Amino acid sequence: MAKRFGGKFSPDAKGETSSAPVIRAPGASSNLLFIPAIILVFTSLNDGPQTLVLALIGGAVLTLAAWLLREGLQAEAAYHARKVARRPALPRKMLASALTGIGAAIAAYTGESGLLGSCLYGIAALGLHVAAFGIDPLTDKRMEGIDTRQQDRVAKVVNEAQNYLDVMQSQIASLGDRKLERRVEDFQDVAQKMIRTVEEDPRDLTGARKFLGVYLMGARDATIKFVDLYARNRDPEARANYAALLDDLEENFASKTDKMLLDDRSDMDIEINVLRDRLQREGVSLNNKGS
């Protein structure tokens, strides 16, 4: 989820820094890779129909590679931001590297490099692409002591919850109302705290599933309807009702998350007391440190 720029010295700042994991957008370096395709096509306009067709094919391949790279970087950022995550189903960065090599080979062939030289250029481009951007994550991120089935359930619920939040954010952004965007982002921060709590202890999934599934899906649907209505007539009553909905959701999410954290602390205290009693029954003194 994209986060707003700002800090404690920004306008409307609250003097605090959000602890939500930041998923960084791809850097300018990935967007620059859309440029070679344009250059290739324009420099081939006067070189005859065969060269132009090859340039168009090469440009399409390079454009697809740049798009896959950008998507792959976004998927990788989301993967690293989460404690429990599945590896990307489609290795976009690796496909982008392969397509970049193919596109570079086609581009070189439109010149005077010949077949062998073009292949060498393609191999070099592929290698440089991998060196610059790396490869996709190849393993799932899991937590020790939690079975695979439970972690898969957590990953699925978290992905769905993140999708609901992303839709809310993109819908509100279409209105161009910064104050309303910040209000939605505040709610998203609270929802992200619940997501992180579930990721850190998948046992909390049962209690949070309705919030991260049914409630967030309802919030997404309400946001879509609100944006459709507010974009037409800027009805202040509709805006007030939507803000009230966000207030209720934020209060309930925060309360539930605090309860989950309190229950986790109670469970930990019980386990410590049980362990202490068992050690004492075994004749192990807990008062003599270092013995």
How would you characterize the overall build of this protein?
The chain has 291 residues and is an all-alpha fold. It has helices spanning 28-31, 35-42, 49-81, 92-109, 114-133, 148-173, 178-200, 205-233, 236-281. It contains 9 helices and no strands. The protein starts with 27 loop residues before the first helix and ends in a 10-residue tail after the last helix.
The biggest sheet, with number of strands, parallel, antiparallel or mixed sense and barrel status, is: none
**Fraction in beta strands:** under 5%
Helix coverage percent of residues?
Answer: over 70%
End-to-end separation = 51 Å
**In angstroms, what is the radius of gyration?**
26 Å
Helix run count? 9
Uncertain regions: pLDDT < 50 for 5+ in a row? 1-24
How are helices and strands ordered from N to C? HHHHHHHHH
**Average pLDDT figure:** 80
Give the structural class: mainly alpha
Annotation, overall tally of beta strands: 0
The best one-word shape is flat
Q: Summary?
A:
By secondary structure, the protein is mostly helical.
Topology of helices and strands:
Elements: H1 28-31, H2 35-42, H3 49-81, H4 92-109, H5 114-133, H6 148-173, H7 178-200, H8 205-233, H9 236-281
Key words describing this protein structure:
flat, mainly alpha, 71% helix, 291 residues
